[in-house]
Design brief:
alpha/beta
Length: 74
């Protein structure tokens, strides 16, 4: 089973995406801000990241750049 980290600050959309992906057999961990996502990225291994672009504090592209700079190539 593939494990997905979903970073979406809109709570309803986050829950809806989680439900759809879980119905398709994926394990999904949903978070609402980049800080929570960063903590999880260093604690767990994910097969796929799904990041919203417009997030509080920084955008999804900036967050992904930080992960890449730290050596994460998910």
């Amino acid at each position: 089973m593939s494990k997905i980290l979903l970073l979406e600050d809109d709570r309803l959309l986050n829950e809806t995406i989680q439900d759809v992906l879980e119905d398709e057999g994926f394990e999904v961990v949903g978070v609402f801000d980049p800080y929570s996502a960063a903590d999880l990225c260093y604690e767990q291994k994910f097969d796929l990241y799904l990041f919203d672009v417009n997030l509080p504090y920084e955008n999804g592209f900036e967050f992904l750049d930080k992960l890449r700079a730290s050596g994460d190539h998910t």
